[in-house]
Write a structure and sequence with these properties.
The protein has 307 residues and is α/β, with parallel strands linked by helices. The chain has helices at residues 2-21, 32-35, 78-94, 113-130, 155-161, 193-206, 232-244, and strands spanning 40-41, 54-60, 98-103, 142-143, 169-174, 179-184, 210-214, 247-252, 259-264, 270-276, 285-292, 299-306. Strand 3 (98-103), helix 4 (113-130) and strand 4 form a beta-alpha-beta unit. 42% of the residues are buried.
Length: 307
């Protein structure tokens, strides 16, 4: 009797979790090939001028709005807002004002509209802090799609609510000494797909700028093998492309503890640096990236903070 009761409890628990997260028990409407027909070139968050040579970017991942508790402490963003207000002043004093923000996926916990509503409130609060006192801040956050965002056929909800309303895109920021291109990938299904790899390869090879790449799934972080892109061939193709097209480093999420990794070829030659951001809600982490475009070669520095 106890065995049957235990099995029943397990089945009910799995059913409850599956209803929340769906776990792809029913095939989703939009696969990776349909989500990313091509890379859209969008406007830079600011125009080229000498005042844009040095700036910072707020980096966040795995906010999981909709999850509050679930064997973790209740979420509370207030300490983050306080920390961000402090850092805004510090980076402005250094000459690197925070000009825009990037989210590397799992914005929602289960792909529901109410969760994206909560995120938009969060986004607006960040904008109010970083644009205070007349600071120049681009109020829309650039986002990539994560696996949790796709639960319960959440793709259309994500696309409707989150800027720039496409999951594969890029833009360029120009300085007086150099320029950098920012590429955003759709790895929400744990893979990129043939079409996305092909389009990215075509555009990146024609782009002479130093590049930064943002994705939800880590590309090839050695310390998080289970959480990286699932197709070894895609990883090899992408690693080759990183090496051939001047990528400074990549920034990802998904693995909540976060970490760093140097991507190398099979022969051990350095390709670029890979940074996995600590989860915003589980590990209370985020990053700030400084960019200096005053010299011929862009200079980047990423620092991780906790609140």
């Amino acid at each position: 009797m106890k065995t049957k009761l235990s099995i029943l409890i397990i089945l009910l628990s799995l059913f409850t979790i599956s209803c929340r997260y769906d776990f792809n028990l029913i095939p989703r409407k939009d696969n990776i090939e349909e989500r990313s027909p091509g890379f859209s070139k969008i406007d830079s968050p600011f125009n080229a001028s000498s005042s844009n040579d040095k700036f910072s970017v707020l980096l966040i991942g795995d906010t999981h709005f909709g999850r509050n508790g679930w064997f973790k402490p209740k979420r509370n963003e207030e300490p983050f807002y306080e920390k961000l207000t402090q850092l805004k002043d510090e980076y402005e004093a250094k000459g690197y004002p925070i000009r825009f923000s990037i989210n590397v996926g799992d914005i929602s916990d289960s792909g529901k509209q109410s969760e994206f509503d909560d995120f938009l409130i969060f986004e607006n609060k960040i904008a109010s802090i970083l644009s205070a006192d007349g600071a120049s801040y681009y109020e829309k956050m650039f986002s990539v799609v994560g696996n949790h965002d796709l639960y319960n056929n959440g793709w259309n909800v994500w696309k409707e609510n989150l800027f720039p309303h496409t999951s594969t895109y890029y833009f360029t920021t120009e300085g007086t000494g150099s320029s950098v291109s920012w590429y955003f990938l759709d790895s929400g299904s744990g893979m990129l797909g043939k079409n996305q790899i092909s389009k990215l390869t075509d555009i990146a090879r024609k782009d002479p700028n130093e590049k930064l790449i943002f994705s939800h799934y880590p590309i090839n972080a050695k310390f998080v093998d289970y959480y990286t892109l699932s197709d070894p061939l895609e990883v090899a193709q992408l690693t080759k492309l990183l090496y051939q097209t001047k990528v400074g480093f990549t920034v990802e999420g998904h693995y909540h503890p976060g970490g760093s990794n140097d991507i190398k070829t099979s022969s051990g030659k350095f390709v670029c640096h890979e940074e996995v951001l600590p989860g915003f809600v589980d590990h209370l982490g985020f990053g700030i990236l400084t960019v200096d475009l005053s010299s011929e070669k862009p200079d980047f520095n990423l620092k991780i903070y906790h609140y």
